[in-house]
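DATA SHEET
Item: assembly model
Revision: 1
Owner: S.N.
Input lines:
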Amino acid sequence: MDGARGHETRSTCPYCGVGCGILLQPDGAGGLAVRGDPDHPANKGKLCSKGSALGETVGLGERLLTPQINGEAANWDTALDLVADRFKATIAKYGPDSVAFYVSGQLLTEDYYVANKLMKGFIGSANIDTNSRLCMASTVAGQKRAFGTDTVPGTYEDLDEADLVVLTGSNLAWCHPVLYQRVMEARKNRGTKIIVIDPRSTATCDQADLHLALAPGSDVALFNHLLTQIEDKGALNPASLAHVTGLEASLRTARADDVHKTDLDASELAEFCEMWIGTERVVTIFSQGVNQSSSGVDKVNAILNCHLATGRIGIPGCGPFSVTGQPNAMGGREVGGLANMLACHLDLENAEHRAAVREFWQCGPLPDAPGLKAVDMFNAVGDGRIKALWIIHTNPAVSMPEANKVRKAIDACDFVVVSDITAQTDTARLSDVLLPATAWSEKGGTVTNSDRTISRQRAVFAAPGQSKDDWLILAEVGRRMGWPDAFDYENPAEIFREHATLSGIAANFGKDFDISGLSDISNPDYDLLAPTRWPISQTRKGGRFFADGAYFHADGKAKMLPVLARSPIEETGNEYPFRLNTGRIRDQWHTMTRTALSPKLSEHLAEPFVDMHPQDAKTLGIVPSDLVQLSNKNGVAILRARITSAQRRGELFAPIHWTGETAPSARIDALVTSHFDPISGQPESKAAVVAAAPFKARWFAFAVSIKPISPNATYWARARTKAGWRVELAGEKPVSDWEVEARRLFDISDTPVQIMQDLSRGETRLAFSENGRLTAALFVSRHPVAVMRDYIATQPGQVGDMVLAGIGAIDQPNPGPTVCSCFGIGVNSILDTIQTRGLMSVEAIGDALGAGTNCGACKPELNALLKRCSPIELAT
Ligand SMILES: Nc1nc2c(c(=O)[nH]1)N[C@H]1C(S)=C(S)[C@@H](COP(=O)(O)OP(=O)(O)OC[C@H]3O[C@@H](n4cnc5c(=O)[nH]c(N)nc54)[C@H](O)[C@@H]3O)O[C@H]1N2
Ligand SMILES: Nc1nc2c(c(=O)[nH]1)N[C@H]1C(S)=C(S)[C@@H](COP(=O)(O)OP(=O)(O)OC[C@H]3O[C@@H](n4cnc5c(=O)[nH]c(N)nc54)[C@H](O)[C@@H]3O)O[C@H]1N2
Ligand code: SF4
Ligand SMILES: [Mo]
């Protein structure tokens, strides 16, 4: 396997931590064909909807192509000198801890290594933290407590070989779709059982044998209960426990815990314990339902305790498995990108480790204590302790808890540098200096996925405009700050070799992370590097950790930790009766700066929403499609109501993706308080408390347009379509003339308009056409607008005058919201086909329509649609 396959270039998907291999073929006109790499061990040719749509996201329309200073274009020399001078001057005046970097688990390892070296080695502060603090920090801390090191013990092959997969706080079907499909494949082949532990019912529950809708935050109580049952049923494993300390204390504490905290009934608990204890090969996958909690580290240890006690670790088909979110969350941990780590899994607090790294980097004294973790860092930005901040490859004005406060803090900071690929983000808009980075497909380097496999990203496009690679921008600043030799890199390969060499030094201290076998890799071999799982050294290669019972604490053993369940910090009550859970949807990535460029991906869920239980909706007087206002002491959000028994009563769920650019009233982190786990510093992003009420709009509207739309309304949300744009709006202020308002909204003055009005019902419809082709249309109503949105969204640019009817012509079926992104198949088409052809299975839908036959990410939704069509309907 080398860097190419015929005319295609091998690379790695830039989204989730599955780390799928992908084959790229530019079309010579800026377009890019993509497909899964059949030779990559993570995905064996498969891609999910996001990976498949990468070709729609590489256009340059919204790219930042020149450096900017205070919003004005500048040249690189001026911008880089300014950054270096301001950081130097701040450090000279206020000391190294007056500056900070906030970086990202999406950086390539080489970028990340240089950022960490610059801050910890040369600036001499540990004030570099990363969005991984919001993501993996609890797992890092939990694994270190248990294993003496931050190691994911298993590999993806364990998912093929397990007989029971327990998904705890993980919506794998939507967030790691290719891994989920891999588990489904194993289920088909060997009957793997599935348990989902999640307060809400998700797409991941589709094939679950058991779904435990536990009380939010109560995972520790559940796994403590399991631990007591493990002892009671005689399932402790003495051979494994010979390598483990802490059993007695952990059992004692587990027995003192109260399983009623979980809200689960006795039969559910019994079934869970029976399945877990009765199956030898168990993998427990966990993710943000575990990590993003004020007891996140304890949740991790409660899970690890059960695996250590039973020896279900280090052997095929077994193990705790933390799936990483970002493409290089793992690589960031390897280079020591968090404020409390050094490099290559070495410890900041260890004088020998510091001395070794200092000697290697040839730098001044390294900081001997952790720097500011994300929440504290932005607090320090807010109160003026941090006077110069560099934000790279992340969008904290949206994604940090208390996002409004964070936005204000960044805005007020003396000097803010942002490196991004677009100027159109909530954070970039707050920068003093904005630096254009090359994007995925324009740059090369390495990333490490969830199972420690290092893969290459490779460039297939030249750097557009003046953009530069992140490692190069950082190195340029390092040189200009006075360290020309330390940052004299010519290419990523050189950085990679340095990193690999340092890992060898770390390994001599007995550390797990060791890629010293690659420290002499030549530039051409680096270019050809095939996916390789660490460790990679003369003596160690690839496989699982801990099979030999050798752990990394000083006594060579693992530790079980006594942990007691704690509730989320904020409690619901009269003022804030609802618990607000937050997370992801299938087809968007975080703050949407890339996935929202794809019309295909925007069709799945085009608008931000809040899910609530039917009883709660009834009490609040909310019906489907109403707008709901959520509020608490931090902020307000307005979202579209979806009423579903997938939610427990009293609990709401809202997605994290919408921003000031796409739906300013739906920035969900504006509501999340920045409470965090005391050990990991990871925020409790899934357990805010809020009040909810119907949003009393005076009018509602739906708009489509060929050109971008710039709304000005209390509520709006926009999405790209193949034909242009679609927007939902709602307002509190009366509008006296809708034609004037529409012309402003669409930025069109002379275009002829057709107007339809029904004053008694408060409805106005306007269609603007040029030469018979529709340019824009607006549908206004006193109530949530009822029109065939998915049909109307296809109409801009089309000839015809049916659009004002709000429905398609008889021969124009309305496909409904997209379910299968790969083939663009809507919910109505699928329901229709199920009914008319009497289809009984997901496979039959695939045969009839193609839906679900490419990436498979929509299979859970197809199943849900099958269930919606009752057998009686099917028979008729
Ligand atoms: N489509 C898509 N995929 C992604 C991403 C994306 O933005 N979009 N982002 C990537 C990143 S960076 C990450 S970190 C991963 C995250 O991947 P996941 O962690 O799978 O995703 P989330 O939706 O954040 O949360 C998972 C589940 O935790 C549940 N949960 C909430 N509270 C609790 C609790 O107390 N206990 C338990 N057991 N469960 C709870 C939520 O209901 C939710 O269904 O996804 C990655 N993949
Ligand atoms: N309430 C709540 N909040 C959450 C979460 C949650 O579940 N609930 N999840 C948290 C988690 S797990 C995560 S990982 C974070 C994610 O949150 P963020 O990291 O803030 O989100 P992204 O949209 O991934 O931001 C990446 C930024 O980098 C830019 N970019 C893209 N490519 C490049 C490049 O090559 N170079 C540079 N320099 N920039 C680039 C993008 O345009 C974008 O602005 O959100 C966290 N916040
Ligand atoms: S599962 Fe999807 S998003 Fe994740 S790496 Fe694979 S193709 Fe990319
Ligand atoms: Mo994440």
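QC remark: The first strand starts at residue 4 and ends at 5.
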